[in-house]
User: Fold this.
Amino acid sequence: MSYKVTTDSGYAIVHLSGDIDLSCSPEARKLILERLAAGKHTLVDLSGVTYIDSSGIASLVEGYQTARKKNLQFGLIAVSEAAMSVLELARLDKVFPIHASVADRVK
Amino acid sequence: MSIAAGGGADACGYTEDQLAAMLAELTHDFASSLDVEETLQHAVDQIIRHLHAEAASIFLLDDARRALVCRKCAGPVDITGLRLQKNEGIVGESVRTGRVQIVRDVAEHASFAAGVDQGTGFVTRSILCAPLTVRGETIGALELMNKRSGDGLFAGADLHLATTVAAAAALAIHNARMAAALVEQERVRKELELAREIQLSLLPTGVEDGLPIRGINMPAREVSGDFYDYFRLPDGRVYFSIADVAGKGMNAALLMAKTTSLLRCLAKRIDDPGELLSRVNDEICETASLGMFVTIVAGFLDPRTRRIALANGGHLPPFQRAAAGRYIDLPPQMPPLGIVAGLVYPTDTLVLDGGCVYLFTDGLTESLDGEGHQLGLSGLRRLLDEVAGTPADLRLLALVTELEAAGRRFNDDITMLLIELDEPLLALRVQADPRELAQVRTTVQETAEAAGCGTKCAADIVMAVNEACMNIIQHGYKGDPAGTIDLEIRRDGDALEVWLRDRAPAVDPVDIKPRPLEELRPGGLGTFFIREAMDDCTYGNLGACDGNYVRMTKRIVQ
Assistant:
C-alpha cells in the first residue's frame, strides 16, 4: 500500500493505493482516525486500490463510526472496481457516502 | 392274469366298468394335483376303496435313497413315518427288484417284517406290493394288505390292477416333485435377486466427487456377500470399509445390511477403527445366527496427515504399494466379526507417502485361469504392477479388464477399493506474518487460474484464502509471526479443494461464525467473506497439539 494525504475544499483526503491487507490496514486505520481526531471532515480516495480485505474494510467502518460520533463528515471517493466489489459483498455500498470525486461530493 | 372281460363281476369283486371308472378317476386326480401330499393321500384312499383292501400304504425312498419311509397310509392302523431299510420286507424287495410282489399267505414268507404286525396289532394275511417306477427309476412302492372280499387274499387280477395304479401314482408323484422343485428354484432365484438388490443398494452411490477412494464391485452369477462403503466425515476424514459376509442369499444380504448400517452409524462417533470393529463384533455376536460371520477391513483416511488408521477382522490384509513399487506388508489379522464376543481389535496406522493402498475380497485372488490355477496374492501383485501407470479413476477397471483378457473365471464377486491421494496442485508453508499475504494471494491466483478458474472465480478463492490466513494470524496465533500456515490446493472433481492448517491452540469450530451484517462494526467480516466466496467451508481442530484446519471448496467456473 502507498498513501498520501491532501486537502481539498475543506476535506482531508486520504489517498490509498495498492493492496490493503492485514499488513497495512492498521496504518490505513491510523491515517483515517488521525484526520478525524484533528476534527477534519475526511474523505478516503480508493481510486488506486487493487485489493482490499476485511481488515481494510474494517478500517473504513471504524472511520465512518468515529466521524458520526464527532459529527464530522466521512465518505469514499473514486472507489476502484476491486474495492467496490468488496464493499458490495459486505453490503456497505449503501452505508458509506460514495462519490466519484471531491468535486462531485461538494456539489 | 388278466382282468375278466365283460360287465359281470369276476372273482376279484369288481366289474370292468368299475375298474375303468376307478382308473379314470385316479389318473384324473393324479393329473390335476401338483401337491404331493394331497395326491398321495387321495391315492391310498381311493385304492383301498376300489381294490377292496383293508389297508394301503405308500413308501418312498428318502433323499439319501437309503431307507423307505411310509408317507401315506389308509386303513385301521396309521404307520405314517414308519422307516424300513431299503431292502427290508416285501416293500424292500419290490423296490430292489422293481417288480410287483404278491404274497398270498404272509405267515409263510421269509421276507415279511413281522415286527410291524407285533407293534401295531394289525394282522396281515396277504400282501400285494407294486413298485413306483418313473422312467426306469424306482422311487418307492405301493403296498396293499388283506383283501376285504372273497377269500381275503390277493389274486392275479389285483396284481395287474395294482401295477397300473402304481404306475399312474409314480408319475403323479414325479410330476408333483418336479413342480415343487420348479417352485423352489423360482423361490431361490427370487431370493437371490432380492439379495442382490439389497447388496447393490448398500454400495455407496452419489458419493461426492473427488474422494481419494475408488471402489468396484463386479457381480458374479451367484450373489456373494461382498460390500464396500466410503464417505467423508464432517471433519474431513474419509471412512472406508470392505467386507465379505459368509454365506449367500437373503441371510447374508440381511447381515450385510445390518453390518453396513452399524458401521455407518458408529463410524460417525467412533474415531478408532479397532474400537469400531470391537463394538460391531459384539453387536453381531449378540444377534447373528450361528455360522454367520463377516470378514472386514475398516478404517479412516486423513487426507491432511496422509495417515490411514485401519483394523482387520479376518479379512485378506490390504496391500500398500509404495510409490517406488515396493509392497509393504500389513500386520496380521484378528478373527472375523460375529464369532467371538468381547474381542479387542487393534488399530494399525500407515502413512500414504505417494503410494496407494488396495483392499480386496477373495473373489479376486481366487479367480481361476484356464488351467484352474488361482490368481493368488503374488499374481495380484504382478497385475497391480502392470496397471500401476493407469490413472486412479480407471485403474480398478483396467485391472478387471486385464483379468478378463487373461481368460480368468470368477466364481465370486470381484470387489476392490483403491485409496490414493491425488498430488496437490499447490502445497505451501508460510509464516503467520501479514507480510506473507501478498505472495500467498499471487500464488493462489496463479494456481486457480492454471486449474481453469476464470478471473472472478480465482478472485473469490484468493479472497477466501486471504481471509482464512488472516483469521489464523489474528485469532489462532494472536499475531505471533513464528507460527506456520500450511496451504494445500487439490483438484476435487470439478472443484478446487483448499486446505489450511495451523499449529495454533485448538479453536472450537462452533466459535467461528460470521457476524450479522447489520451489526455495523469493524472486524468479523472475514468469515462472512469466506462463506460468500466459497461453495463450502468446514472448520475443525485436530486435537490439543495438532492445530486447526479449514477446508474450503469452490466449483471451477471459467
